[in-house]
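Example A, followed by Example B.
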Amino acid sequence: MTQHAHHDGDTVLDERGIAHKLHRVALQILEEHPDGDFAFVGIHKRGVLVAERVREFLAKEGLEKVPMGTLDIAFFRDDLHHRTTNPEVQSSDISFGVDGAHVILFDDVLYTARTIRSAIDALMSYGRPERVELAVLIDRGNRELPIEANYVGETIETEREDYVRVSMKPIDAEESVVFYQGGKPPRS
């Protein structure tokens, strides 16, 4: 895990940097679990892309049959009643048995940990896994809940009001991780 001080508008990772960090996450998972006895679940939207990319790296390392699912947490969020707009709903698709499984959840950015808590609640609606671990591309700190990632691509020191934008193809036109000091910039 690398920690650097960043300035407003800094590109923390470019396309090559993202690929390098995700490959490192894949190797960490493989080192921890060489038997490959686990399944991936990506949290919509970019968590699914992170999981798919790590899964591709594992396939290149000889671990080709990692079961994978996708998870929508829209109706499991704890801020649902505070929202002024309806949540964007994606489809969840978990075709493997969750009961007794070792599941690795994936997201792009770990911040307050409320998304992960919601994802665990959503996952439990499919069954009771034996173990749940967390893998993220970016850990930016500032937790509100006692949840930490088991596998982290990059750690960025941020303040609560800062923003980290992850862009990944095919959802976005480019691949980058950009740091914004003091607030969220408009989406371009």
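Example B, a separate protein, is given below in the same form.
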Amino acid sequence: MADTDYEILDVVDEMDCVIGQRTRTEIHRLGLIHRAVHALVFNSSGRLFLQQRSMLKDRNPGLWDSSAAGHVDAGEDYGDCVAREVREELGIDAPGRFERLFKTEATPETGMEFCTVYRLIDDGPFRLNVTEIQGGGWFSPGEIDSWISRGGDALTSTFQKIWMTAHETYIQ
């Protein structure tokens, strides 16, 4: 059994209310609605850190994604999850330093995940979790916009959706 067979997540309805629990594998196989967080970590110069997902990942291996992201575990809330994911993936201990920006709807484009998006200012350096991330880099908002306008090759569809929403409203 893969590690994802032991990861228990909440299954939610269209209103983001918990209706049960299943393994991550079952949720993805059945296309059930569940929860995730995405952290956008900016440095003091306004550049966004993007992670390149490990080739070991079962979803979107090698693609560029939000600074940190992950599923909300069963019984966990979004705020606790974002602090855990940033600590696990980037080595940042930042409780209370997150600004909640918005929540996306659960759609096929987001993998049927309600995604709550947070912003954090941190200049690093980071301790990347090599089982999750194969690399990363700092990008200006203009560089990301240009990347997406050229088709967004090598960017996850979820990050592209998150960036377009974040950039329109929260990032100047």
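On Example B: The domain at 3-169 is CATH 3.90.79.10 (Nucleoside Triphosphate Pyrophosphohydrolase).
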